[in-house]
Amino acid sequence: MAREPVRPARREPRKDRPPRHVQPRNHDTYKLRQKPGGTVVCADCGAVHQAGRWTWGAPPAEARSDRCPACRRISDRYPAGTLSLRGSVLKHRDEVLGMIRNVEEREKSEHPLERLMDIERKDDCLLVSTTGLHLARCLASALERRFKGHIRIAYGEEENHVCVEWVD
Hints:
Blueprint: E1 40-42, E2 48-50, E3 53-55, E4 64-66, H1 69-76, E5 81-86, H2 93-110, E6 116-121, E7 125-130, H3 133-147, E8 150-155, E9 162-167
Parallel strand pairs: 1-4, 5-9
Antiparallel strand pairs: 1-2, 2-3, 5-7, 6-7, 8-9
Helix pairs in contact: 2-3
């Protein structure tokens, strides 16, 4: 004769503890919640969302028109990455700006959502804002290799923003 397994008694919820409200960890308002059906072409830049990915190319005739996340970030002036350069690296300002543009062109050709938003020149600082986390990291890594400096990287609490700082 087989014995029935003994199940532990079910506990009642504690009355002295407030209910848990679990928040989603990564919430980025610029990421699509779900893949759009069909093909979408960005009305601003011409990027095409097809088969779950943003690419460059000619859209098919039946494509819907919408804005890509990068164009929405640019119009809202809400960067995903910022790179701040101070100190000795600014002695080579023209070369740094050329490198930034070259790295951005290379990344943008493969990943349409990784773009430069703005390059702001202040007295002793150069602030570069990007539409993606990866472009800010790529720019910092390229500058670190070329000028033999160090970078400090700080991610936002929800990891949807990165601040990269050049350290002399």
